[in-house]
Amino acid sequence: MQPAASTFSDDDLHALVNAHARREGPLLPMLHDIQDRFGHIPETAHEPICNALNISRAELHGVISFYHDFRKAPAGRHVLKVCRAESCQSVGANAVADAVLARLGLEWHGTTANGAVTIEPVYCLGLCACAPAAMMDDRVIGRVDAAKLDRILAEAGA
Amino acid sequence: MRIFLPMDSAAKSLGAEEVAAALRAAAPEAEIVRTGTRGMIWLEPLVEIEMDGVRHGFGPATPDDVAAILDGTSTKALGPVEDLDWMRRQSRLTFARVGVIDPLSLTDYQAHGGLAGLRRALGMSGQAIVDEVKTSGLRGRGGAGFPTGIKWQTVHDADAPRKYIVCNADEGDSGTFADRMLMEGDPFTLIEGMAIAGIGVGATQGYVYLRSEYPDAIAVMTRAVEIARAAGLLGADVLGSGKAFDMEIRKGAGAYVCGEETSLLNSLEGKRGVVRAKPPLPALEGFLGRPTVVNNVISLATVPVIFEKGAQHYAEFGLGRSRGTVTLQIAGNVARGGMFETAFGITLGEVVNDLGGGTRSGRPVKAVQVGGPLGAYMPVTKFDTPLGYEEFDAAGGLIGHAGLTVFDDTTDMLGMARFAMEFCAVESCGKCTPCRIGAVRGVETIDRIAEGDPAALPLLADLCETMQDGSLCALGGFTPFPVMSAVTQFPDDFARQKEAAE
């Protein structure tokens, strides 16, 4: 479930940054916390992070853009990740993914018009013995097929 | 009545929570113990009911089966779980407790031999601890197979004010899930192994770098570290020994390349997860420039049993220079998928056909990719290859993290080769040219082969040679394994395309 991105104060942001500033290697835990709270890494977070860690904006941008997890803008209310890795492919993951993308009328990383679901590829969820696999927010789903995903997408309001 | 039901994410993904709810509703008086998984994923959710001290299995269970399971009329009865062929044929050392105990009960853990290894290690000198690991013959289970004891010796001998133990739990290879299963099913084993490592080499701080794609494992490990700290197993005075070791769980951020140890260290430091050139070795200049042991989950989780039972006991298992047990992960298009821990030496064919029962689709096996996305596709003609580091190397493959992904005869190997290059392009850290550019060119070249361009095949072989020789790490360096094994072992899939074009 993605939290609302609209309401946050500077105080919240500074508290999150300061909570990690003294740890060894603080940046990833800091970014995860900010994203958990705000749904993405807002531009307004850049300056406090850079000041707290004494890094440049370029360095921070480099880190945020390197990792698939960090978002510049909020995702839909739910994120569906569909595995594209080899084990899932061996039991028809490509067909499942194609069907879901077609049903939603989206490309990878797209969000439904009503903001309910963002769909993303993922490379392995560790469910390779019960593939194909998918994950809706933090809920894992094994042996998925188009019908199962349809049900889950409907529950999520897509 | 005691009922056992896995909370492992594979079981959850197949409906374990719904079965748990049905069990609670139908038998409110029963004690339901949530465990890890036994590793028989095709039987999940596997309900176990204790009868006269013996656990009887029922699976794969659905909520509709619950009534019959409870009144003893279920057609899904499997008999005593320990007597099942799959269980009896294993030598479970690292995974002895997984699926058996409540993962977050330290009492359960100790009742099944937990902490005996650490207690023994606390009475030994650092050098004696390192020597014990060397004697066991343990080699890195993450893929490279480097002798763990030698790595520990380097860190032990390094002189520094602060040293680290970093556990690589960035298990991103498709077809592998043993790390996840261990962390969700027996987290204290990993904690104990890291504590022994820390005390052995003189490191006081540990980190587990755990991939964000494993939310269940993160939750279990985080809770286990809190429990361990509260019980004095971690902290300034480990089990009252006066020695300090503490650890923290760190979440990755979705970059496959961070499974490579130097990019993992950069990521842990809060940088882009780009690969570092070696030397310097992480053992000398690792996390924050300090001497660091970087070991895989299974390597570290095997340390407690080596200290509990003795290095010699562990070394008695195995084949040639591959000592101990290998945790096979049988995955993909396979009838019986799961985790099987056995001594090195079992053949590939035995694993796929005998244990795995052939394909799930019922069609003939075409290829098995061993060792994840960077491992070679092995054809059926190589099924007599025994699982051992050197044996697989000789057969043109690698064991890697011992994941095996089975493919049936409908698989298009050209498509799989293209996917390997595409994946490398998506996940390349961008530091070295052969990987960053080579992977993109690789996709294009394979597309040319598909269109029937006869000049493209030798070009692909040349490109793969450059990537293999010129890349900084295994991502660019090993992507040629799946690509070229597909080309050489399954030439028809590449030639047919040519004919079609003509």
Structural features, described:
The complex is a heterodimer of chains A (158) and B (502). With 158 residues, chain A is of the alpha+beta class. Chain A folds into two domains: 10-66, no CATH class; 78-155, Glutaredoxin. Chain A is built from seven helices and four strands. Chain A has helices spanning 10-20, 27-38, 46-53, 57-66, 86-89, 93-104, 146-155; strands spanning 78-83, 117-122, 134-136, 139-141. In chain A, strands 2-1-3-4 form a four-stranded mixed sheet, covered by helices on one side. In chain A, strand 3 (134-136) and strand 4 form a beta hairpin. The model of chain A is unreliable at 1-6 (pLDDT under 50). Chain B folds into four domains: 2-88, Glutaredoxin; 106-315, 3-Layer(aba) Sandwich (Rossmann fold), CATH 3.40.50; 318-408, Ubiquitin-like (UB roll), CATH 3.10.20.600; 413-501, de novo design (two linked rop proteins), CATH 1.20.1440. A five-stranded mixed sheet of chain B has the order 2-1-3-4-5. In chain B, strands 13-12-16-14-15 form a five-stranded mixed sheet. Chain B has a four-stranded parallel sheet with strand order 8-7-6-9, with helices on both faces. The longest helix of chain B has 18 residues, at 433-450. Chain B is of the alpha/beta class. The model of chain B has no long low-confidence stretch (mean pLDDT 96). At the A-B interface, helix 2, helix 4, helix 5 and strand 4 of A face helix 1, helix 9, helix 11, strand 12 and strand 16 of B.
Quickly list its features:
heterodimer, A: alpha+beta, Glutaredoxin, 2 domains, 7 helices, 4 strands, B: 502 residues, alpha/beta, Rossmann fold, Ubiquitin-like (UB roll), 4 domains, five-stranded mixed sheet, 42% helix
